[in-house]
Design brief:
The protein is α/β, with parallel strands linked by helices. It contains 14 helices and 13 strands. The strands form two sheets. It has a seven-stranded parallel β-sheet with strand order 9-8-7-10-11-12-13, sandwiched between helices.
Length: 392
């Protein structure tokens, strides 16, 4: 059914595409439906795009669930939000025809804005590629995913395990003709958030105490580590001269409280008071940040602090930390079935998911202690961690 609809859309839309491509493009549309961490991983490409096209007007079309990640970026002139079908984690499933009706309405609106180029910054996002075609945009650049290819004017080789930051840089280079020079992740907390973090640190920590932040939550059931493992790790990390802080969203307050109740006295927790901005400011003050595959862990990387990422069903080659592997470590069990990329339920019906359950707290503690002791020299741009630690 989807294939038939897509082919029909291609036939209907092609005659209405503006034929003349402008170079350098004056108006560029970025289509990125993903969540916080994914948008952050694309920021090196946005910086490269702005450097290559300083006079272009760059508009980003993102989901409302992630707009905060790009809202203060100097590289973007205009930020628009759209509830992309299939990406809203909180709402009910849309009706069968709703995604196509939204597609047509949005395309009609974008057509009046006369964009010269559209960059599809997710390799399998056929809906975004179709949107660019229906909006009549002459240059539509993306990857050769089978569902996307019919809608694109420039098709790049599709490598499913390529890091998403590399992918975004390749798309920018395809538009500008200039090799995109990589760089670090970019997120700068506001002055107000920095002041809030300073006051919080002064109130909660002694001057000589080290701050360890643990962010246990994430979207997707199979990406979670076991409650008992977090408790064991916290007991191991709890030493004089250290303060451990649990962070999470307001929806995760109950889960954090359960960990606090079973942990040693003095464990701190923050959820209701946190915004993304405040969280970033706090993460930047930490001596170490530990968590599973999540947006906040990528935010910690962007703040230049050492991080420890626990990966199970996620692919670290594709979504791993964009930073110095000496400071940004990935721990994975290395099971033959991992990474599977399935986050709702384990395809093998293991509960809890085996790929997360077998990550030993003692192994995590050992790596954490190494990062707390060592202070490697930060690198300006070390790219992705291509090699990561596994139990196998």
């Amino acid at each position: 059914m989807r294939y038939v609809v897509l082919r029909w859309l291609v036939m209907v839309a092609r005659p209405f595409v503006r034929r003349s491509a402008v170079y350098p493009p004056r108006k560029v549309l970025l289509i990125k439906p993903d969540h916080l961490g994914d948008l952050l991983l694309a920021t090196p490409a946005l910086h490269a795009l702005r450097r290559a096209l300083p006079a272009a007007r760059i508009t980003a079309l993102v989901g409302p669930w992630a707009a905060t990640m790009w809202q203060n970026l100097a590289e973007i002139d205009e930020l628009e939000t759209l509830p992309f079908p299939g990406f809203d984690r909180s709402g009910p499933k849309p009706m069968l025809l709703a995604p196509y009706l939204l597609l047509l309405r949005t395309a009609y609106r974008l057509r009046a804005q006369s964009y010269d180029a559209a960059l599809i910054l997710r390799d399998d996002h056929w809906w975004g590629a179709a949107l660019a075609l229906l909006a009549g945009i002459p240059q539509r650049i993306g990857f050769a995913h089978p569902l996307c290819t019919p809608f694109l004017s420039t098709v790049l080789p599709y490598r499913p395990r390529q890091h998403v930051t590399h992918q975004a840089l390749e798309i920018v280079a395809a538009l500008t003709g200039v090799p995109a020079v990589s760089g670090p992740l970019r997120y700068t907390p506001t002055h107000a958030a920095q002041e809030w973090a300073t006051v919080w640190i002064q109130q909660q920590l002694k001057p000589d105490e080290h701050l360890i932040i643990i962010h246990p939550g994430t979207g997707g059931f199979t990406k979670h580590w076991l409650h008992s493992h977090w408790i064991t790790l916290i007991h191991g990390l709890n030493r004089p001269g250290r303060r451990i802080l649990l962070t999470g969203s307001p929806n995760e307050a109950e889960k954090l409280a359960a960990i606090v109740a079973a942990a040693p006295p003095g464990l701190l927790a923050l959820s209701q008071e946190l915004t993304i901005d405040r969280l970033a400011a706090l993460l930047g003050r930490a001596n170490l940040v530990i968590g599973v595959d999540s947006g906040p862990l990528h935010i910690a990387v962007s703040q230049g602090v050492p991080t420890l990422h626990l990966f199970g069903p996620s692919d670290p080659l594709r979504f791993g930390p964009w930073g110095d592997p000496q400071r940004q470590r990935v721990l994975s069990a290395g099971l033959p079935c991992s990474p599977c990329g399935v986050f709702a339920t384990c395809p093998r019906a293991t509960n809890p998911p085996e790929c997360m359950a077998v990550i030993d707290p003692a192994w995590v503690l050992s790596n954490a202690e190494e990062l707390l002791v060592s202070r490697p020299t930060p690198t300006i741009d070390s790219g992705q961690t291509d090699c990561y630690n596994t139990l196998s």
